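Two proteins follow. First one:
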Amino acid sequence: MSNSIVIIPTYNEIENIESIVRAVFSLHKPFHILVVDDNSPDKTSDKVIELQKEFGSQLFLEKREKKAGLGTAYVFGFKWALAKEYDFIFEMDADFSHNPADLEKLYEACHFGGGEIAIGSRYVTGVNVVNWPLSRVLMSYFASYYVKKITGMKIHDATAGFMCYNRKVLETINLDKIKFIGYAFQIEMKYRAYCKKFKIVEVPIIFTDRTKGESKMSNSIIKEAVFGVISLRISKFFNRL
């Protein structure tokens, strides 16, 4: 039995899912995996079911009826993991933009380093991004700067999606109140934890853009993030967060 589970939301990740699952299970530290699939037309879930025959009780699948957004997938996964009594709950993309080997670094930062949240940070030691166009790097970097200025959080990579949570963080945050489903979800989770005064640490990673499959980024997701940050700050000001 592992005390740690990695939540991987998927939508059309058939090209990546087997490789990412095998990479996580090859690590020295044992992790379990929960794949939350939004009824991918490319049959990602069928591949997970096939892999379950090999990996048994290490690999879990929850298939939702339709594509409903990254944030709702993670909230679903958080509640599932809390009910199964995991102590450390991770977020990770399926596309290898997050190096599975860095899961162990995030775990160590929380289990041994005193962090209650560990962020796999692209910007804590400079700009550690590979294969992104300059425009995307600048957008991401200045988004985190914007979040820092509006919210007051001393976090270099507020939009990061590679995370480790101690279960007590997710137990304390009211997951039913999470408002955002896209890019802003990552900011909202960090801000709610920051307002609860949990210890947040940033662990430097190298982020590598996907080589297979398609990005889920869209203009609506970016818009949600820009205006969502202001909304969060206003809610905090009026004690309604």
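Second one, unrelated to the first:
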Amino acid sequence: MICGKCGAQIAEDFRFCPHCGAPISGGEVSGAAAAHADVMAVKSVAVPVMVTVPGGTFIMGIGEYNRKISLSAFYMSETPVTQQQYEYIMGKNPSKLKGLNRPVECVNWAEALIYCNLLSIKQGLVPCYTIGNVTDLGTFDTTSPVWKRVVCNFTTNGYRLPTEAEWEYAARGGRNSSQMHFAGSDNINDVAWYGENSDIHSHDVGCKKPNGLRLYDMCGNVAEWCWDYMGELPAQAQTNPRGPQIGSMHVKRGGSWLDDMQQCSVFFRSGSAPVGKSSSLGFRVCCSMVESII
């Protein structure tokens, strides 16, 4: 049977979904639970829908740690990559909290890059990532030290992870960036699934309000991998910063269904080892707007 609430496959004799806890009746979520099922404001599609993020200048960070950052225009997926979208390209779904329209999770940093390149090829775009001259990154063990040699060509039109600066700029509304604590609101319950309202699991994407750029789930649901190594923000004004050249941790942003309010703010920074996997960690994709690169 299929759970009508979260989409997980469950055994015929289950009366409650072991993934989301919804009561099961005839293969569907029963009346009361169905009435409270999440309602997506986006279409369920196999390839990420991209939103234009116009270029501009903003103050990254908060308080004494803020920095003036200028960015070229780019495209960003309107939601985190879903399990349906990941499986369409990769042929598998590694997620622990199953649901085709939930964010994919339990994906490490290298696997996110492999997805980006394969999606680029399938869409007829030029892959961004190479190790040596190789773009078929699936030939490398995702836990190998060779991934320290991966290079991102930001001048190609393929899919890639956002830089940390791009992520924060987009989360805060882009050119019209605000000082709101969450992506689109100062009320976290309007825009994010987090530790206090998630019922201890992820949710279908696009069920909370978007921010001003029509980007959903920038805060909460799952934290999102960024391209950059974790390090101090640049002290001076920067244009298209891409983080430190070396490091042992990669940035993740946005917080998750497991986290508290502070960790889900647009300002909060944290990192994870590139081999790290978690049911609270996923990613979304970007593309450079090649003709607009500063």
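SUMMARY FIELD: Residues 36 and 55 are 39 Å apart (CA to CA). The chain has a mean pLDDT of 89.
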